[in-house]
Amino acid sequence: MPAPTHLQDQLRSLPDNPGVYQYFDVDGKLLYIGKAKNLKKRVQSYFVKEHDSTKTAILVRKINSIHYLIVDTELDALLLENSLIKKHQPPYNIRLKDDKTYPWICITGERFPRLFHTRKILQDGASYYGPYANVKVMFTVLELVRKLYPLRTCRLNLSKENVAAGKFKICLEYHIGNCKGPCEGLQTEEEYNKGIAHIREIVKGNIGIVMRHLREDMNTHVVNLAFEKAQDVKEKIDALEKYQGRSTVVSPTISNVDVFTIQSEEKAAFVNFFKVIDGAIVQGHTIEMKKRLDESDSELLELAIVELRERFQSNASEIVVAFVPEIKLLGVEYTIPQRGDKKKLLDLSSRNIDYYRQEREKQATLVDPERHTKRIMATMQKDLRLTEEPRHIECFDNSNIQGEFAVSAMTVFKDGKPSKRDYRHFNVKTVVGPDDFATMEEVIYRRYKRVLEEEQTMPQLIVIDGGKGQLSAALNALEKLNLRGKVAIIGIAKRLEEIYYPGDSVPMYLDKKSETLRIIQYIRDEAHRFGITHHRKKRSKETIKTVLTEIDGISEITAQKLLKAFKSVKQIREKSEEELAQAVGAAKAKLVYAYFQENKNTSTSL
């Protein structure tokens, strides 16, 4: 496609230097930013050949003016291109998936810095480490460093002048061992900053450096016969070794390496990054890159390498890849392994892209709720070994205080979601005292006897909040109704979330992260919440009736007025006759006051 006349002179005069070029349309809108080892050859190539990509052909037709910036090296051009793309986000450039939703670990830049996680990066002098695609990993790191190095959490201005003037007092965090009291000068700035330096290395994955420093400190304390201090340091070393043991260990011979793999689709590419330090993967991240033109895998990988190394502050001198991109990074060597530990790293990195794409597909199903529901139901049927999908689930939970005010609650989930209009309460009728098993049997019997009598639809799954005992009681009720074996029923015990089946004394344990367990826990927790709410209302109502309404001449309405004014029966008992009269009048106040004076030794409260 020949260049427009007004661009031909500019194309001929382009320099042969490395640089960055920018295409603008007739309205001055920035269309595209690119890098080049040779600006003249690269830009002219857009106008001297036919383009297979329709988008590229459209871009070329829109170009009305060309701007360029000369740099010293091709690497400088790549860095500048990356910076300009992020700043201007031209419509024809590759789009990196925005990581603004991922959290970071922040170390503030103030005196006695604070440590916390955040999803906002501010230009405030603080240091940010991340992003953490796996939030659990981030919290594990935070828990570790806070255990090793107690830090302040307050926002006080701990300047030298303020601390010296005694403006602040130590708080609860000091007394429970979470802070060493720098606000009162109980911890020196030097000691505090030493811990911060170690934390910076830990969050960057450089645990080996911290371990070496701690071992040196421990040996120094031993030589000085400071055995208690030595023991404290040893406990920190043990905690770090335990944490390091959780990391994916590759090989101790791989010291400081970055690993990149790429997989392409028609409209997108996915790049996975591993940061390996001291033989262990300390960070991993996958990004999605939206294609705009016919970019090659080499071009995409170049941009991803620069972006991710900058984002994760990597200074590794070796990059493990499946192919060598065209761009050369200063002081960095590319490695294409054919076998051994580094080849295993490449394969693992590629598998992580597979997992990412599967998760992406899973998220896409949320756009189609019915498709999502079908998948969830099929998963639950498989996980719980059911003969049919559990489209209709009913769950039961009991509530009482030493057998008093006993109630039971039933919650209902349909297609994996709460169906609150179908929730039911049961006031226990036949059970006396705290007998949870008998209560469960009564409620199950009453519920499904009614279902049969009214020819309602039976659920595909019954969930019992409890272990083997509660499940057996529910089975007894189903046996009486000739329903045993005709409807699936399980029990879930709270302590370890064990799933019990009829006739099987060995519980099943679902993956703690599984959707099936999450839904079972949700319906169980709903039943508990629903039951507790009803239990409290019943207890309150019964307490009013049995205490205040025992007084001759006091109705339930008067009792409610007293409780509204004084909050509890205990408070009512302690009020004077004049104070009671302000709420319910002199006549009724006299009755209430006289009653409690006659029953001073009775301890009743609400």
Report on the architecture of this protein.
With 606 residues, this protein is an alpha+beta fold. Among the domains are: 5-93, GIY-YIG endonuclease (3-Layer(aba) Sandwich), CATH 3.40.1440; 256-363, Nucleotidyltransferase, domain 5 (2-Layer Sandwich), CATH 3.30.420; 378-538, 2-Layer Sandwich (Nucleotidyltransferase, domain 5); 551-598, 5' to 3' exonuclease, C-terminal subdomain (DNA polymerase, domain 1, Orthogonal Bundle). The model has no long low-confidence stretch (mean pLDDT 81). The strands form four sheets. Strands 14, 15, 16, 17, 18, 19, 20 and 21 form an eight-stranded mixed beta sheet that branches. Strands 4, 8, 9, 10, 11, 12 and 13 form a seven-stranded mixed beta sheet that branches. Strands 2-1-3 form a three-stranded antiparallel beta sheet. The protein contains 20 helices and 21 strands. Helices cover 45% and strands 19% of the residues. It is extended and about 105 Å long.
Low-confidence stretches: none
What is the general shape?
A: extended
CATH architecture of the domain at 378-538: 2-Layer Sandwich
Profile the largest sheet: 8 strands, mixed
Radius of gyration: 35 Å
User: How many helices in DSSP terms?
Assistant: 20
Total DSSP E strands: 21
- CATH names the topology of the domain at 378-538 as Nucleotidyltransferase, domain 5
Beta-strand percentage? Answer: 15-25%
Task: Tell me the name of the CATH class of the domain at 378-538.
Answer: Alpha Beta
